[in-house]
Structure formats: structure tokens, C-alpha cells
Amino acid sequence: MPKINSLALRLTGLFVGVFLMIALLFMWIIERSNSELRQHTTQSLHHQLAEHMIADNQGLSEGKIEPEILEHTFHAMMLLGPAFEIYVIGPAGEILAYAAKDAKIKRKEIDLKPVALFIAGRAKFPLLGEDPRGLDQHKIFSAAPIFLPLTAQKRQLQGYLYVIIGSELEDNIITTLSNQALITKHQILVVAAVIFALMIGLILIGQIIKPITHITKVVTDYEQGGGWQSGQSLPHQALSWQRMPSSEQLQLAGAISQMSATMSDQFAQIQRKDSQRKELLSYISHDLRTPLASLIGYIETWQQQHPTAGQDPSDRYLAIALKNAHVLNDLVEQVFDLAHLETGGVELHREPVAIAELAQDIIDTFKLQASAREVSLEVSPKDSGIQVDADIAKLERVFSNLVANAIRHTPKGGRIVITFSPIEVEQEQRVLIRVTDSGSGIAPEQLPRVFEAHFRAGNKVDSQTGNAGLGLAIVKALLALHQSKISVQSEIDNGTSFEFSLPLYRL
Predict the structure, then answer these.
(1) Rounded to whole angstroms, what are the CA distances from 263 to 229, 270, 332, 412?
(2) Are 84 and 165 within 8 A, CB to CB?
């Protein structure tokens, strides 16, 4: 369910983000269109403004350009029309006269191409020209040529009257008022857009998420109920979303239904094969017991009847055969025990077990073997008062396998210690048991497989032991009967530690 919620949040966020981007782009387009419409209207309305100003000014109409006189004239005009800025520019675009402080004028000349288009009447409004008061500003304008009459038919171009429509003062006032109005307007639009987007997004995303949630719930209930383990497939109708299912939802439901049927069939096949494997192992190990016992018995009888044997080379061969027969007998016993444990037919006989005393008995059993390898065995603490609730016979097998495994991995001069310590697990008093050796350790990549049947780590000190790799698998199965799990920690050349816990026995 958290993944579905996360998907819903991501889809909602994506929808709101895209909606806001579209809304802002739409607002920008509208604002730009309105601005162009205002400029077009204003420039069309004042397109003859410069021509009328020249006609109303005697000096300009006679082609006289006198900067000092024009400065006062332009100043008076701009007082009456503060929305305009008036300039006289020369034939090459140089600025000749204006009514402003010199610091305000940022350009010495302007581009005449827009002016020529405007005068020729070939311009499409709005037509923008360079603003002398800004290096990167362009504004709508009105322009007209200034001629010096030479004869009745001949005149000489003296320059142009260049009128910027939209003065700097007007821009400042409009910007201030617009900012005050736009802040509130944009805030309202943004909040309204977010609310609208959330509402629409939640509705649409709900329609997407509900079928997924439904399918997830059906599959989860099916998995938790062990449906695929019982051989039942998910019905197609249970997966389909009842409210106007789409073709994609129906395809997904069909795919999941088919997958569940395939999984159920495969699991059933695995169960049958595993059951057959366990039965085969049990039968083989059972059938091998009698001939092996007979073989061992005959060899031992022959050795007893020939007490002087050993001088003939054939006697050494018999001794080797007897040793291998015992190894094979142990292997058969382990295979039989493991198969018997896996079938689930083993019962526990719980009783209070003095764990330290049991461990000490196991230590005594292996003392001769450990001494031969110069390995020390210890139990700590030796407290007979520590008792656990367990099956003593099966616990003895656990200790035997772990100690035997530790001896195989521990070099001369090494140390094996069995320790006990009280712990509390989910408000239950238990005893934590560790079997630790100072041996060669286990490689990290091999640790996850140490409890697999027939797995043998590749770092044994003595690989000629006849060990089949079943001991730890049997330990795991025996502890599983006690509802306990065994874990392992190991480092190369720093030893290995196996640990598990059993419930503390209380009177």
C-alpha cells in the first residue's frame, strides 16, 4: 500500500506542476497579446503625431533645427503630453535635439531602419524603435521627416522628428500600479489554479489508482492466504475492476491470473519432486543400513578371528575398507536423519536440560579427538543451574555436530569455547548459546550457504575427513523443531561463531 500512495502523490504532484506551467504560459501569452494589442492601438492612434507637431512648429516646418530653442519647445510639449518624449535626429540617425538631462540619454544615435519603414507606410504595427534613454529598450514611436525648402519643387532633408510614445515617467507609473494590481491578481489566479488542479488531479488519479489498489489487495490476500501454495489460481473475475474496466486493466488481470496459475502448478510440481526426493533418500539410506552393518560386522569378525593380522599388506587394505565403511555408515545415518527431519515426522520430547552439563559431556566426548589435534575445548560458565526447555537427545546432536565442525576447521593450538548468556526476546527469557572457534573462518560469499545440505566450505584445515556437509543442515533442522534459528558470523583467519537461543526453563 505505501507504494500505491507514493504513486498517487507523484502523479498528483506531476499533474499540478504541469497544470501550473500551462496556466502560467497561458497567462504570459495573454499578457503579451494584450500588450501588443495596446501598443498597436496606441501607435495607430498617434501615427501622425510627429507630422502634426512639425506642422504646428514654424521652425521645424521651415527646416530649422535649433537645439536650444527646440529644447524649450519640447519641454513645454512634454508638460502638456507627459506620455511622449520628443527628439530630433539627423539624416544619419544622430540625436540633435531633446528636452532631457544629458545623463538620461544613453544613445548618441538610433537605427533609422524602423523610422524609414514607418515613414514609408510599409510597417506593421506595433513597430518598435530604439529608445534613446535605454541601451536595450525598444518602444513604439511616431516619426516624420524635417525638410528645408529650397525652391517650390525642391527641398532638402534635414532630419526627423522622432516621438517616443510611452515616456519613462509613464513607464514608471504603469510599472508601480501594475505590480500592485498583478501581485494580488496573480496570487488569486495561482491559488485558484492549484485548487482546481488538485481537485481534477485527485479525481483523475483516483480513477487510475483504484484499480491498482484493488488488484494489489486481491493479490496480497491471495499470497497471505497461501493460495499459490494450495494450488489455487487467482480467478480473472476477482482481479478485474468492476467499474468500467479498461482493456489495459483486463490485460493486467489476465496476466496476473495466468501467472498465479503457473506459480501454483510449479509449486505443486516442486512439492511432488521434493517429496519424492525425501522418500528416495529415506528408502536408500534405510536399504543401505543392513548391508553396511553386515559388511562392518564381517570385517570386524575377521579381524577378531585373526588377532595376529597386520603383517600382511592385505590386512592394511581391510583396515582401510573398515574405516571407509564406518564413514559411509555415518553418511547414511546423516542422510536418513536429514530426510526424516525434512518429512516433518519427528516429534520433540521437551524437558528441563542442564545446558552447561550437557555441553561438558559433549566436550568430554570429543576431548581425545581434540587433544590429537592440539585443540582446547572449554565451557563457560560451568553453571549447572542454567536449564533450558528442549529435547535433550536432539540438543546433544546439535552440540555434537557444531563441535565436530569446529574441530575440523580449527588448526593446531586453536581454541573452541561454548558460552551461555541470558537474554530477553519479545518478553521471553531465553539462553543465548554460542559455539566459537579460532579456526580458519569462512569466506563472506560462502556464509549464506553454510547451512545447505552437502555444502562444504573450501577452507578446511583438514579436507580428508570424509565429511559430507550434512552436519550443519541437520543442526538447522533440529533447531527449527525448537522454534529457534541459528546464525553464523565469521572472518577469514579470525574464527567462526555459531549462535542460537533456547527458552529458559523455570519451575
Answers:
(1) 8, 10, 34, 51
(2) yes
Beta 351-354 vs 155-165: how paired, if at all? Answer: unpaired
Q: Which fold has domain 228-346?
A: Helix Hairpins (1.10.287)
The per-residue pLDDT for range 16-59, each reduced to its tens digit, is 777 778 777 877 787 788 778 888 888 888 888 889 998 888 88
Q: What is the 3-state secondary structure (H, E, C) of 266-320?
A: HHHHHHHHHHHHHHHHHHHHHHHHHHHHHHHHHHHHHHHHCCCCCCCHHHHHHHH
Inform me whether the pLDDT recorded for 205 exceeds 80. no
Read off the C-alpha cell for 100.
532631457
Q: Where are the domains of the chain?
A: 46-166, 228-346, 351-503
Which class is 351-503 in CATH?
alpha beta
Record: fold of 46-166: Beta-Lactamase (3.30.450)
Task: Give burial (CB, 10 Å; 0-12/13-18/19+) of 345.
Answer: exposed
- Mean pLDDT across the stretch 311-337? 73
Cell of 153: 519643387
Q: What Å distances lie between residue 250 and 217, 241, 253, 257, 475, CA to CA? A: 16, 8, 5, 10, 49
Average model confidence (pLDDT) across the chain: 80
154-204 tens-digit pLDDT: 889 999 999 998 766 666 666 565 555 555 666 677 677 777 777 777 777
Residue 362 per-residue DSSP state: H
Point out which residues pair with 129 in neighbouring strands.
139
Alpha-carbon Rg for the chain, nearest whole angstrom, is 50
The DSSP code for 382 is -
Is 0.90 surpassed by the pTM of this model?
no
Contact 353, 431 (CB under 8 A): no
